[in-house]
Amino acid sequence: MNVLKNGLIIVNTGNGKGKTTAAMGQALRAVGQGLKVLMLQFIKGTWDYGELESIKKLDPYFKIKPLGKGFVRAKSKLSDTEAIENINQSWEQAEKEIYSDTYDMVILDEINYVIDFGLLPVDKMLTLLKKKPKRLHIILTGRNAHKEVIEKADLVTEMVDIKHHYSKGIKAQKGIEF
Question: Looking at domain 9-161, which of 3.40.190.10, 3.30.1360.120, 3.40.50.300, 2.160.10.10 is its CATH number?
Fold first, then answer.
């Protein structure tokens, strides 16, 4: 385990594409420097995402754990009760992993959506960020990052949607969106 002194809180948000992709790029850079990375996916979980296969090749330095059961709110097959239950279980696992001090970087993928949809109180996130191991880098992805999370963060990047192929009717493609 590397000796890190100042773990950063990084937020990738905005309506543009690339929030998770940027977090994974940051993770690849970290792995290249000998850091251990864990990505916890709060919404993804029912599709066969390309990153799941490629990251297996970087084990034990980079692990991804899909915790979600698919999209919530928009096109959701989950009831609100099922979604909240899944988020509560996922949050408990996230706290356990973060407080274990096993990793150098933890990515909480799509967590901003979870807070924005009211499935996780922002206070829980703020408490976690305050109590995390000092050396741990945490990356939070998803649209609509909460104002208080942005204030707490050390680095915030907003992806801006200038042009997207969806507007031309081109659907999600393997290797690009998943």
Answer: 3.40.50.300
